[in-house]
Please model this.
Amino acid sequence: MTDVMRNTTLLGHTPAVFRELLQPLDDDLLHANEGPGTWSPYQVLAHVTWGELDDWIPRARVVLEHGEALPFRPFDRLGGETRFAGWDVGRLLDEFARLRAENLVTLAGMRLQPVDLRRTGRHPTLGIVSLSQLLACWVTHDLAHITQIARVLVRAQAPHIGPWREYFSVLKEQSPVP
Model:
């Protein structure tokens, strides 16, 4: 299996994982976080949905069409909160799934070859990055946010588990930022 196929498979599973984790949650859990400056599961969902519009595919196109000559536009990490303000979780999950499906069709339509994956673009803060790195980062981004949501939900359960708390290393870790 090629890296593109592996990445596409993982990217294709993310909407279902988000739906399974978030659809049944009440507002208390959807909006729970790990403290000041951290994100709730709902905020994570808004963020990844915004990324489907304004990050991954637009940047891939820049690499393929302009290379390093045109730097990527900076990504507004909080843009989803503005764009999707007031949306209920079901509608936002549907939008994420729709956009991800469209983006995977777009990605497949690029018919990327190994030479394309080595092409480079210019990130506004990281400098030169390859298309292969961008696609791997997209998958890593999904997985990191799934982990983040799971961690928030684990920590929300912590007050209720009594002495078993000592068996969970995730409850002993420092709270990360978003």
Summary: The chain has a mean pLDDT of 94.
